[in-house]
Design goal:
Helices cover 37% and strands 17% of the residues. It is an alpha/beta fold and 242 residues long. Helix 3 (64-71) runs parallel beside helix 5 (114-120) and helix 8 (194-212) crosses helix 9. The protein binds 4-amino-N-(4-chlorobenzyl)-1,2,5-oxadiazole-3-carboxamide. Residues 62, 81-83, 107-109, 111-112, 126-128, 130-132, 134-135, 138 line the site of 4-amino-N-(4-chlorobenzyl)-1,2,5-oxadiazole-3-carboxamide.
């Protein structure tokens, strides 16, 4: 998958592109991350990328010409990240990982000229209800979430265990030592009984999801086994209320 990112701050992407799991995926040609400096498409003397907004009020708006020009060299769906967009989630990441090429505009300042949004942008996406100084971090968030779903980037097992893969939150994880300063790992996990471990994990996932994110359970189909655990969880919680 080829990912073009248009930005005024290309250096923000250098560690992201070269380190850790994303760095390895790039090296192994599983993804290509093509960082495009919008400044290279500013043809005036001062290479000005932004200007004051028509209608007054403070702040700066990114000029249309450099963005239109930079987009000439880019293929695939054009994505603009802003709080005005549709909410990014795991389902959207799974959809986007199927694209051969995508182009992300990482804006800065108060926004980009709306003519770019209207004529060039296919999807406006928000990573959450908060306001950032630019689209660079949202771009990295989306690329990270998409890239790890591409076969070979992480082992299949790691993402089949993801929160959301089965529509539930993760169960708690522990590693060595089995006891630290008197703090113990749950006995079942060192029992060696794989059926019991599986059941414990399923129940913990269900319990967490019920307590922390009941919204995720609204339209979810439960298996027979999950129903049994849910009943136990509700009974245990009722017991605790007494
Ligand atoms: C976006 C600042 C565009 C300037 C932003 C420009 C955001 C979010 C966000 C800030 N993006 N989800 N939340 N962007 O805050 O996606 Cl030009």
């Amino acid at each position: 998958m080829k990912i073009n990112i248009l930005t005024l701050f290309p250096e923000l992407f250098s560690a992201f592109k070269s380190q850790s799991i994303i760095g390895r995926a790039v090296k192994n040609n599983l993804i290509e991350i093509n960082i495009i400096n919008i400044r290279d498409f500013c043809f005036d003397k001062h290479q000005q990328a932004d200007d004051t907004p028509f209608g007054g009020e403070g702040g700066m708006v990114m000029k249309p010409e450099p963005l239109f020009r930079a987009l000439e060299n880019c293929g695939g769906k054009v994505i603009y990240t802003s709080p005005q967009g549709v909410k990014f989630d795991q389902q959207l990441a799974l959809k986007l990982k199927e694209e051969e090429e995508i182009t992300i505009i990482a804006g800065h300042y108060e926004g980009i000229d709306e003519r770019v949004v209207e004529n060039k942008v296919d999807m406006e996406i928000s990573i959450g209800d908060f306001v950032l100084t630019g689209g660079e971090l949202p771009s990295m968030v989306m690329v990270d979430a998409i890239a790890r779903l591409i076969p070979g980037v992480i082992t299949q097992a790691s993402y089949e265990n993801d929160s959301f893969f089965n529509g539930l939150l993760d169960y708690p994880q522990y590693t060595r030592p089995a006891e630290y300063m008197g703090l113990k790992v749950p006995d079942v996990l060192i029992s060696g009984n794989h059926k019991k471990i599986r059941d414990w994990r399923m129940k913990e996932s269900l319990k967490r999801t019920y307590l922390r994110r009941p919204d995720l359970l609204k339209d979810r189909e439960f298996s027979k086994e999950e129903k049994k655990f849910m009943k136990e969880i509700l009974e245990e919680l009722m017991e605790g209320e007494k």
